[in-house]
Design brief:
The complex is a heterodimer of chains A (335) and B (321).
Chain A: E1 7-18, E2 21-33, E3 38-42, H1 49-54, E4 65-74, E5 77-78, H2 84-90, E6 95-98, H3 112-122, H4 135-148, H5 154-157, H6 167-179, E7 185-189, H7 197-214, E8 217-222, H8 225-231, E9 234-239, E10 242-248, H9 249-254, H10 259-267, E11 314-316, E12 322-324, H11 326-329
Parallel strand pairs in A: 3-8, 3-9, 6-7, 7-8
Antiparallel strand pairs in A: 1-2, 1-4, 4-5, 9-10, 10-12, 11-12
Helix pairs in contact in A: 3-4, 4-6, 6-7
Chain B: E1 2-12, E2 21-32, E3 37-41, H1 48-55, E4 63-68, E5 71-72, E6 88-91, H2 95-98, H3 105-116, H4 121-134, H5 151-162, E7 169-173, H6 181-198, E8 201-206, H7 209-215, E9 218-223, E10 226-232, H8 233-238, H9 243-251, E11 302-303, E12 309-310
Parallel strand pairs in B: 3-8, 3-9, 6-7, 7-8
Antiparallel strand pairs in B: 1-2, 1-4, 4-5, 9-10, 10-12, 11-12
Classes of the chains: A alpha/beta (335), B alpha/beta (321).
Chain lengths: 335, 321
Amino acid sequence: MSKQPFFSIRDYRLNFNTFDGVYQVLDGVNLDLERGQSLGIVGETGCGKSVTIRNILGLLPSPPAEVISGQILFEGRDLLKVSKAEMQLIRGIEIAMIFQDPMTYLNPVFTIGNQMIDVILAHQRNKPRANKMSRRQAGEHAIEMLRKVHLPNPDKQMNSYPHQLSGGMRQRVLIATALSGNPKLLVADEPTTALDVTIQAQILDLIAELVEDMGLSVILITHDLGVVAKVCDRVAVMYAGQVVEYGSIEELYDTPRHPYTQGLLRSIPHPEISVAKLAGIPGHLPNLLDPPAGCRFQDRCAEVMPVCKTTPASVSVGGSHTVACHLIRQGGGDA
Amino acid sequence: MLDIRSLEVNFVTKSKNKGAVTRAVNNVSLKLEKGDSLGLVGESGSGKTTIGRAVVGLNHISAGEIFLDGENTLGPNGKFDKKFHLRAQMVFQDPHSALNPRMTILRSVSEPLILHTRLRGVALYKKVSELLEIVGLQQQFLYRYPHELSGGQKQRVCIARAIALNPELLVLDEPTSALDVSVQALILEFLKSIQAQLDLTYLFISHNLAVVRYVCNKTAVMYLGQIVEQGNTEEIFNDPKHPYTKALLKAVPLPKSGQARRSNPLWGDIPSPIDLPEGCFFFSRCAQAKAGICDKTPVPVSTLSDGRQVRCILFQEGDIL
């Protein structure tokens, strides 16, 4: 790897120390993202997709979280090692984040404008005095941002309270706020899960527009394989704290190799074709207090072998497509 | 079997804007034959849950009637006749809040049996064990509490409770939207198998079009308290007629490669059900709307040659377009 990646996570291990014991939440996560691309992380509840990205901006309280090993590299800096003061300069300015339920992340007793201006002014803290925005300039900047995310009547909406907006409009406000610091990377944690399909389509359209027109890089966390296929360039499938498969949309959706990815794709009903039978994946996530040695999917896998007691390495199966499964290592035949 | 005739449900606001009327369901007529499963789809706020709740008597009815097997579910006093609880049962969206956290599974599932039958003691216990077996849970779950179960298991318990009284009709209100996809697949498979096994009719409420396509043989698309299109699932999904149905289908992201990033989706939000538009309810968001026609007069329902019903001015004179 000669050229330095824009953003990458290397061998990231994380534990949660609780009174119940030590939860081994992340077990050697590796991810890469190039500038101007969008990466989707998919997986079911509890697979560690949110935990993986929370610490990009140092949002996991420690304790209980404890980083065991690994690096989160952003333009050469290790985000797990930067000081609090440095993090303040990255958070919201270089990397911004939006979350699932826009109502929870907006303060109900302040107007949209007020909250956006606060954020914009907070971004001015470390700028030289001459470049600092005044409160009025911040207000104008906020309106410009709202216009960019296509919120109708932005000047009027600045005086609205969050409850006066619909879910889709609130998510637009959050995206506008996140973009106000002109970040290079936007991390979106289930941004459309709380929204209707038609509103989801609007927000996904907006995200695609930001990537294409503004050159923004995006990490999108979701449990919906359809959403990822629509807006992302690459996708990582996670299971119980491990990335089991990683590749471009074409590689992963056209030729899924890991049994878990195949199971997931067989579990979803398709709106375009009528499906005779859904497979589903019986069983549960392993208990992360005491995860099975080796592959964490072994208890639910139909093709489990004795060798699954050892951790499978990520093997390249052509292009950027990597799979962590022993089935692949044994000659790379049909998984 | 289930026959809903020009149903209307209105809610009157009590606090702010006192007296304002929310017209949640507007002149809805639906018919289900025995063994059907009808999918009711639409955005949130379109009134699909309100219809489901009205069918099992959890909502009042402002106008119209609901017949089950030819019998009116409204008693002579204008209220829901409780004997229909034996025939129509409901499964709710969030299995966690639908189960009492302080009751064991045995207690939760026996509740309807204690209320409506004379089963007690060993007979009751046996019946509950049988029900759990039908939904695929082992005996060991009888004495567990809801917090000890996973989401999929809890939803199975809710289904066991709903089928305890051998109902003919199950109203399923987004039964899988709180579950992961791998679990959702198992529950949907299971719902299909017990439908055949127990001869059930389903009213399946969902915002997930893919799920409706998988489970239901008939589909009704709702918008702002009205049904804008209804017919056989395959026909609606293969060849949607109403502009709203088309937009809704286009909005679903597909789990496959090679999709266009930008799809030019439906713009705006669903209007408020408090002051309804004069003409077509979908006028404000419709790409094919004709000003002066669509926004002035209410749109009647037209029946197409394949038996499908569409509420759109474009289809008024039979099968055009």
